[in-house]
Write a structure and sequence with these properties.
By secondary structure, this protein is of the alpha/beta class. The protein contains 15 helices and eleven strands. It is globular, with a radius of gyration of 21 Å.
């Protein structure tokens, strides 16, 4: 093998830019990102080693490896592999649900604000989306949503539990009752992406509804607890006929290394526990800062905190960018609220100084 081939083209003058020149060309790289709800503590060592072992095979498509991942997920969830549909993050899974069940003349029901991927994709496909406002406590208004589902015979409804941007959660009994009643009319998509971060996840998940035959689709992701946001691996748990209908609209497959990373991470319980602990500790410490500053916040259980600033969000974004941070986007109608993702301890200590600078604590 020639030196040029071994170095992947570097011998041909394709120099790798150093960090300083790269930052000059792409100034956004210099900011600490507390806007993406990522898990900054991943990937785990076990996952990193798996990626390094398999990088030489990343010239291949992961069709066979996808089957291994589905088998591992199915065993973890207590279902058969045909109850699992893989996607490029949960974003693709949400889009597939909209593609399968949203069309002109159809109604989709969703809270707002929430994660908007499914609702906005449904609108693009010509469906009517009935947006239902939060309760005063910034929770999903399940009663109002169910009323809309039943009156408009919705083909699909979407519940994000825990919610984003608020981080609020409804009880397992409330979620179960909603899913059962709403599924009399159409499919219910229950987004449990953040649920895995809870210590009592097993008592909260509604996978049993899928096992019992209800038309409920559970959305999950390797982006949060697993710390693999950049690998774009998500999945749905649902009735095989529903997943087959969704799968007809797939236009891509996950990356090889993403699948390898997910396989290594599925049963990495030690890292999962560490992620939950570090995120919870960071969230608690940030809430203590907000208490000190007298800033109201929702009781979040996610890897983020949604809090009032009293400053219009675009102005607040600019203020924090001037101090080196990217913060959450606007979530109307909460125009003076901000969502902050929990970063590493070092990142949060730096952000604490920025908050004290702005609010004079």
């Amino acid at each position: 093998m020639s030196l040029g081939l071994a170095l992947g083209g570097r011998a041909l003058g394709q120099a790798i830019p150093d960090a300083q020149s790269q930052a000059a060309r792409y100034p956004e790289l210099k900011y600490i990102n507390l806007a993406g709800n990522e898990n900054p503590f991943g990937p785990s060592q076990k996952v990193s080693m798996a990626i390094m072992r398999e990088v030489g095979n990343s010239c291949r498509y992961p069709f066979r490896e996808e089957e291994i991942l589905k088998d591992r997920i199915a065993a973890r969830e207590g279902v058969t592999p045909d109850h699992i549909l893989l996607g490029n993050g949960c974003d693709e899974i949400l889009a597939l649900a909209a593609a399968a069940y949203a069309a002109p003349g159809k109604t989709v029901v969703s809270a707002k604000p929430t994660y908007l991927q499914l609702g906005e994709h449904a609108e693009k496909r010509g469906a009517h989306v009935e947006w239902v406002s939060h309760t005063k406590s910034m929770q999903h208004d399940l009663d109002a949503m169910l009323d809309a589902v039943e009156k408009q015979e919705a083909a699909l409804s979407y519940v994000c539990n825990p919610d984003t941007p608020t981080g609020t959660i409804r009880t397992p009994a409330e979620i179960r009752e909603y899913c059962i009643k709403a599924s009399n009319t159409g499919v219910v998509f229950l987004d449990e992406v953040y649920l895995e971060l809870l210590p009592d996840f097993e008592a909260q998940t509604q996978v049993d509804l899928v096992k019992q035959g209800y038309p409920v689709v559970i959305g999950r992701s390797f982006s949060k607890m697993h710390g693999l946001a950049g690998h774009r691996i998500g999945y749905a748990i649902g009735d095989p006929k529903i997943l087959e209908k969704m799968g007809r609209h797939k236009m891509s497959s996950p990356s090889y290394l993403g699948v390898i990373a997910a396989i290594a991470s599925v049963d990495d319980d030690r890292f999962h526990a560490q992620s939950k602990r570090l995120i919870a500790e960071g969230r608690e410490q940030y809430c203590e800062l907000l208490d000190t500053l007298g800033l109201h916040y929702t009781p979040s259980v996610g890897n983020f905190v949604f809090h009032k600033t009293g400053i219009e969000i675009r102005s607040f974004q600019k203020m924090m960018k001037e101090r080196g941070f990217l913060v959450g986007r606007p979530f109307p109608p909460y125009e003076d609220w901000c969502r902050i993702s929990i970063g590493t301890q070092k990142e949060m200590e730096s952000y604490k100084a920025a908050m004290l600078d702005v609010f004079g604590g």
